[in-house]
Design goal:
With about 525 residues, the chain is α+β, with helices and mostly antiparallel strands. The chain is built from 13 helices and 22 strands. It is globular and about 75 Å long.
Length: about 525
Amino acid sequence: MIKTIELVLLPEEAANELLITELSARQLGISPLAISSVQLRKRSIDARSKQVKFRLLVDVYINEQTTEAIFSKEQYKNVSDKQPVLIIGSGPAGLFAALKLIESGLKPIIIERGKNVKDRRRDLAIINKQHIINPNSNYCFGEGGAGTYSDGKLYTRSTKRGDVNKILNILIAHGASKDIMIDAHPHIGTNKLPALIEDIRQTIISSGGEIHFNTIVSDFIIQNNTIKGIKVSSADNDSEITIKADSLILATGHSASDVYELLHKNNILIHPKAFALGVRIEHPQALIDTIQYHCETRSPYLPAASYSLAEQVEGRGVYSFCMCPGGIIAPSMTAQGEIVVNGWSPSKRNNPFANSGVVVSVDEMDFMDYKDNGDLMGLRYREAIERKAFLLGGSDLKAPSQRMVDFVDNKLSTTLPITSYIPGVNSVMLDDVLPEPVIKSLRQALVSFGKKMKGYYTNEAVLVAVESRTSSPVRIPRDNDTLEHPQIKGLYPCAEGAGYAGGIISAAIDGERCAEKIALKFKV
């Protein structure tokens, strides 16, 4: 017999397996000796009261053999001689689309402008140490996409779009911790993602798929409004080749500006899209722990605390985004002459700072100064702000920054705290970086956040600009049923870069959905 029960325990109690068994027996009114084992199904932290507790959902096996979940890699048939399908981009959407195509008996050919994870790591070191950006290999571009060297958060609300557990199972089979099936807000960690991504690559290649690194799409081959292939060139030289295929999944992520330019040049329908813009805010992690856990010192049984904040200011949404406990602020620009920041955490979340994007919604009405650029108006708006941040940062990829209270009080910060942003920060008036509506909304929201989270509003916190790659400034339209572009047959706009998903899980699900539609078309 298996009984599922809920236990609410103190942090130190939740770490004691023997105690969990005893409490389970007490709740069920049976002897602990009758329990074969207790397996954790779900775990979450309840910090609403002054005494922080864990909520555990556990399966109690009573006089019954335990059944361990098995997370093994699927044994795919070889598809090396099957119908080819092109995938542009090797982020989660591209990788999971490839796995789904293989499962369906089709051959994925992934085109990735950046390098593999091992070589890509060297380019990240060059960004931080020499302040040089490789436009094809950086925090956004390369094997695994922007997610490889980000936080690895796996929480999603897209449960109606696909099988979240299947995605998690595949990740575990390729090296992720089994805890991602248990935790309410699962997380892999930047230090563990690269090996996992490499393992997925090996699965794709060993099953007959192809992955081409350092390869840039230079043009689409279109006949009678139908995809027939692409032209690609090497990132190392100008040699150009043609790859033919009748289906193309476009999964390039939110930073591939040249792909938007290419679509625009070919008169392929795209639209400007609302996104969010703001700053990354960094506090000492100990301060966030104190606020969230109502204590002077965090218990060793508790993880680094996180937060989620949102406010409406005169019709604009202002919210925290990609909160990274025990994390790092990363230089996420994709070209020289711009400043973009993002955040990530290692698996242990044990760095001394907590950072989060705090962003404001912007839309077409904000882009009107760039209306002459047509459907690229949002992209041009974003680019202008990122270039301004570079100029005001000063030099060597320094980021424009201001203490929180100084920012709200419209005062230049005479000093800045130590930050995790390795290239360094420069004290500026952020009014000179961000548009006035964003500044106004941020100021009001930060005061409100301080009322919701006592201690959050402080000059110990620093605002680092700009957080501008929250999502794509362009939407690539597609049919709701077939997922094909309404104008170009065989073109499947996918995931975050097309404006349909955000985050690892939702992007992976969208990649699978596109692959499923292609398989239906070929009836395999």
